[in-house]
């Protein structure tokens, strides 16, 4: 078992420095290759911590039982280093969403060149997991989002990832420029994980996903069957566009939550209120339209009319 750090993309910057995209590679036998990508949006940090936790686990395996790594693990914690350096969601200067630049082009601008290099690096992988952290406005329970076009292949994998929700959504043109759609279109299975909130870490969620990824790797033959892993503790609910309800603000103001995230709701139950900073009146109440699970909740309190406040999944059966 070996560990190396490799540069998959390098570009000279205007003032002497270079922009480098690096990966850490753990190599065991000739088994399957798997990869974890993170930091594609510069304001999403949860995936960076998952990469750390996986690296720590692999470091320990290298010390104790290196023969138990049968394949290869690649960790890409920072696909958008300029965004991470500046706490910016997009690629600075270009004001371009890197996750709308795939599959990229070697003759394009920086985001497209970077995307093309990542696609080349991930070609042939047996599984890629791309980790996101919503944004600074919304908090998400640990979930996998799957385009219905690829659900037959990806749902069985997602069910083993120790997460709380699988959301199967319809195809949308904008998603075709994401890393996940581009990889899946090239027969490289890619799961998109959303969890936590932007610019923060949620260690419990990261640990939950870390355990799920280790089980997935073992199922794929990357880890030896005799490796003893922490038990899976979560089995996902399944949502689709027919049972996900969006709650948008009816007025502008300050959102004050009245319930916790990841909560069983009853129809009409109060999720929070929108109040005015200028007087004492409650401007609007946000209530659940159905019996269901609160899986998205507003984190940033300032809202405008139409802002997304929450998402509720109407139950179709199953239990937490």
Structural topology:
Layout: E1 2-12, E2 18-27, E3 33-37, H1 46-64, E4 72-76, H2 81-86, H3 110-122, E5 127-132, E6 138-147, H4 151-158, E7 165-169, H5 179-185, E8 190-196, H6 203-220, E9 237-240, E10 244-248, E11 253-257, E12 264-265, E13 270-275, E14 282-287, E15 292-298, E16 302-303, E17 308-314
Overview in brief:
This protein has 320 residues and is α/β, with parallel strands linked by helices.
Give structural notes.
- The protein is α/β, with parallel strands linked by helices.
- Helices cover 22% and strands 32% of the residues.
- The chain has six helices and 17 strands.
- The protein has helices at residues 46-64, 81-86, 110-122, 151-158, 179-185, 203-220, and strands spanning 2-12, 18-27, 33-37, 72-76, 127-132, 138-147, 165-169, 190-196, 237-240, 244-248, 253-257, 264-265, 270-275, 282-287, 292-298, 302-303, 308-314.
- Strands 1, 2, 3, 4, 5, 6, 7, 8, 9, 10, 12, 15 and 17 form a 13-stranded mixed β-sheet that branches. Strands 14-13-11-16 form a four-stranded antiparallel β-sheet, with no helix packed on it.
- α1 crosses α6 (203-220).
- The protein is globular, with a radius of gyration of 20 Å.
- The two termini are 38 Å apart.
- The relative contact order is 0.14.
């Amino acid at each position: 078992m070996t560990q190396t750090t490799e540069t998959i993309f390098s570009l000279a910057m205007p003032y002497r420095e270079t922009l480098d995209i690096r990966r850490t590679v753990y190599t065991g036998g000739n088994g399957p290759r798997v990869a974890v990508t993170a930091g594609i949006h510069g304001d999403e940090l949860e995936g960076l911590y998952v990469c750390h936790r996986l690296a720590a686990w692999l470091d320990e395996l290298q010390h104790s039982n290196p023969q138990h790594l049968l394949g290869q693990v690649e960790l890409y914690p920072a696909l958008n280093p300029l965004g991470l350096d500046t706490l910016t969601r997009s690629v600075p200067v270009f004001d371009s969403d890197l996750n709308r630049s795939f599959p990229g082009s070697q003759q394009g601008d920086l985001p497209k060149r970077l995307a093309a290099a990542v696609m080349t690096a991930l070609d042939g992988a047996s599984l890629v997991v791309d980790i996101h952290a919503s944004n600074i406005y919304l908090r998400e329970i640990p979930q996998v989002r799957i385009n219905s076009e690829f659900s037959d292949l990806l749902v069985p994998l997602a069910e083993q990832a120790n997460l709380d929700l699988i959301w199967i959504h319809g195809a949308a043109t904008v998603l075709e420029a994401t890393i996940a759609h581009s990889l899946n279109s090239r027969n490289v299975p890619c799961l998109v994980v959303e969890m936590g909130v932007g610019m923060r870490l949620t260690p419990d969620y990261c640990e939950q996903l870390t355990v799920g990824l280790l089980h997935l790797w073992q199922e794929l033959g990357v880890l030896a069957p005799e490796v003893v892993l922490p038990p899976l503790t979560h089995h996902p609910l399944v949502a689709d566009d027919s049972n996900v309800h969006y709650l948008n603000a009816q007025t502008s103001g300050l959102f004050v939550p009245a319930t916790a995230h990841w909560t069983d709701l009853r129809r009409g139950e109060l999720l929070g209120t929108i109040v005015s900073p200028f007087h004492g009146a409650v401007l609007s109440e946000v209530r659940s339209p159905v019996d269901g699970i609160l899986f998205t909740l507003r984190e940033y309190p300032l809202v405008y009319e139409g802002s997304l406040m929450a998402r509720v999944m109407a139950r179709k059966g199953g239990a937490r």
